[in-house]
Amino acid sequence: MMRDVQGINGPIKPAPSRSVVRAMMWATVPVLLLVQLLASAGVEVSSFWSQIRQLDARIARVAESRAELIAEPLWKMRYDQVTGVLNEIMHDETIAAAAVYDDTGAVIARVVARPNVQALAEVSRPIAYRNGNIAVQAGRIVIAYSYATLYVDTGSRLGLLLVVGVLATLATAIAMRISANIFIGKPLTAMMSAIQRSKQDGRAYPADVKSSNEFGQLANAFNAMQHTTSGALDRLGHMASHDPLTGLPNRRSLSERLVTLSRDADSPDALIAFSFIDLDDFKGINDTFGHDAGDKFLVHISERLRGTVQSDDWVARLGGDEFVVIRPEVSNEEAAQTFARQLLEAISAPILLHDKQVVPRASIGLAVRRAGDPELSHLPALADIALYHAKTKAPGTVAVLDEALQRDYRRRRDLELAISTGFSKGQFEVWYQSQVDLVTQEVIGLEALIRWRHPEHGVISPGEFLPLIERSGNNARLTRYVLTDACRALQQLTAAGRPHIRIAINLPPSELADHSLAAELRQTCEQFGVAASSLELEITEGSLINNIASASDTLRRLRRLGATIALDDFGTGYSSLAHLRRFPLDKVKIDKAFIREIPESAEDKAIVGVIASLAGTLGLTLIAEGIERDEQARAMREMGVRLGQGFLYHKPQPLDAVLRGLAEAGGGEDRVLVESPSIAPEFAA
């Protein structure tokens, strides 16, 4: 019944985005700059190597021409003329030095113009002297020259090209930015603005794009789509926040409404009344009249709620048969209760379904909080606590949330969350209560009763924690837990010389649908070396009704193993004779509600007498629960009830105490009836 209520999440901020134009610029400009620089550098490098080759060729020509000029002076040993020729070429800035060697390799003349020049290269040419028929090798000339000037010039040009390239790229980028912003950025911005505004409030906003290019065509198509789908968006928005069947706001709208109430309240002390309505037995309406009639039923209820509230009130359907009515301002809690009772009265007017009058019934959980209360967002959960109390304790009424209900809820939640720990740490204990032969007073069986010894809350009764175990889906785990302990107890009873005492365990309704139960019972009995015939399995009449087919199959499997089947709390449920004939039953337990007033109540005596007569006719063993006084035991014997249990004989206690009591009662064998009952865990208070 309890539900978790989600808080209100704020709007999710979109991740920061980069504009298309900026992204395009970042992707294009560096590439453009790099391409320009590489192209310019390539041209300059090619030019540089061309100049190098030209310089080499020029210096080679200079060396050849000077070799011809100094051939005769060198041969005739006019060395001053040789030096003069060398001095003439020193005006060339690229030439660093020159030298002339004679045919013996001796230096005849040397001129050094630039001694510290870097990046030098040399060219050497032979000096040949010819005079008539005479042709001799007179020596050689060597000229050293430098590339430094070319390097400096090329570096300067490269620097200039870099500056020009950067400026050109910058100018290109600016031009691209302006054009891209005009032709791409502005149209996209207009369209994104229209989309964002549409997302915020669900309305259609056209994109203002005037261009006739592809973006203009796209904007026109977008505007046409916005116009076409605006109505559909409105309908979708309404469907997302409203129940399609009744037209009322839904659970999604509830959180938004609570925020609005807190924000728009005239004063933080204004009282807000929250009524959580749950229809009683709506499933019966669907099962009896069909789901179409059930939908019609819900529409009637929604119309009645609308007709009962004022204009400032708010009505919603959360789903299924759950409704909410919020009154944003009430004078006090009593006024809120009066309003909630008015809602119940409006709901309770008869409704005609398939020509039959149906009287709706509902339960209401009411929570009243101030508008400035931090718990305002938790109003659905708080009202649900009160509704849970109304549904379980007094269906068809209004339950108001108070401190006691909140304490009970917190305790219930704490226990429900501690169930798993209780199993793992062995906090659940199986106690046993004797069942006796009312004539001989001999113990013929034990009933296993589960208890929870909680480290903080002490010993908790089954009436409190068993519904929580059922809600948490741990019924099967508890059944196996009790079954294992019962088989261990049968081992100890056999060792104590009491092999004929049987133990009964209770089967919750969900276990009757579990076809693996019989196999697990057989496996557990084999594990402890006990017979399945030493076990008695108690079921309630309600569990048979809800699972007729599967329950019958499961019970027959268990009975084939030798286990005894007992019908517990007979007389408090459906009490149909057909059930006693249809299912494989061995015993019937008379509920303690019929024993409590005996022998004073003639009516209860008559009922027990009829049950005893019926059991005798059908061949069923009868056992009476809750015997606390001698006169009750005497009355049972007089009416033919042979077996019983209750505080008159023994209270539930741990197995060790039971074994000590049996030992003190005497060492002789207990007399065990063939049809005597066994023991069952108590799944009720």
Can you describe this structure?
Helix 10 links the parallel strand 10 and strand 11. With 685 residues, the chain is of the alpha/beta class. The protein contains 20 helices and 20 strands. Helix 11 crosses helix 12. The protein has an eight-stranded mixed beta barrel with strand order 12-13-15-16-17-18-19-20, surrounded by four helices. A five-stranded mixed β-sheet has the order 6-7-5-10-11, with helices on both faces. A four-stranded antiparallel β-sheet has the order 2-1-4-3.
Q: TL;DR of this structure?
A:
The protein is of the alpha/beta class and 685 residues long. Helices cover 50% and strands 20% of the residues.
Rg, nearest Å: 52 Å
Give me the count of strands: 20
| Mean pLDDT metric | 82
Distance between the terminal alpha carbons, to the nearest Å? 21 Å
The main β sheet shows up as: 8 strands, mixed, barrel
Shape, per Cα inertia axes: elongated
Quaternary class:
single chain
Strand order of the largest sheet: 12-13-15-16-17-18-19-20
Structural class: alpha/beta
- Strand % is 15-25%
What count of helical segments does DSSP give? 20
Portion of residues in helices?
Answer: 40-55%
Unreliably modeled segments: 1-17, 667-685
